[in-house]
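Action item from last week, closing it out:
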Amino acid sequence: MNKMPTQVLPELAAYRLEEEIGRGAMGIVYKGAERSTGRDVAIKIFDLTKAGSSKKPQPEITRQAFWQEVMTAGSLHHNNIVKPYDADQAGDMAYIVMERVEGHDLRHYIKSGHLLPAELALELIAQCAETLDYAHKRQVVHLDIKPANIMYLPQLRTLKITDFGVAHFMGAQNGSDVVLGSPSYMSPEQLLKKKVDGRSDLFSLGCVLYQLISGRLPFTSDKLQPLIRKIIREPHTDLGLFLPELPECIDYIMNIALAKKPSNRFQDGLEMAQALRDCKEEIQEI
């Protein structure tokens, strides 16, 4: 993406792009404002060629699919979901204009020296689980839950989930049955290209919690195939083995959230949120 985004996507002329505030494997996020209203926005611009597709996107089909996916997510009205305002696609490029959130995504809080207290981590993941439950009950599965897609607002001690609909769209452009996601956080069924439901998101959320508590991922490898094999077949390492002071209730939650079979996991976000808050109360009583 060497040219300015407005040169590649003339539709972005309605917005003033200010500075880059984030960058990922497939796109860049800019701070911006809507010219007609002055409303602060964030603008995420995707390079569809980075989706790994072996086929050239068909412009009109792709444009309609992108709009559909993002606007389906836009129908979700929840305080903990970043609102999309606009979206479009042209050729190999696409963009989403969304609510600007002041804060860091959770990648900031999985680094040594920035880990959150366990009680706060449990509360934030409980909020995530409740938010995902809201989406799942409306037949919307996120499919790419990871620290980069969860924004933390420290002043309010709350969070917002972003990028609903994007992973599903990108996976469709990849020309395969499996959606594009971040392998380290993907569920076994997602990696195996099986049918997924909301319990796949809860597995991913379990990976995020594990990392928030410990600064480590539950499954690691330098190469993709061994990583996939571990997620599908091998148990995660109990947090208690390297954090012995941690209450047992956290390992109990991890064992359910990271179960290989969806039927052995929390069956919905509310069940997971309740377990997280029960554990939080247990810690506060110690």
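Closing note: The beta strands are 15-23, 27-34, 40-47, 84-90, 93-99, 104-105, 150-153, 158-161.
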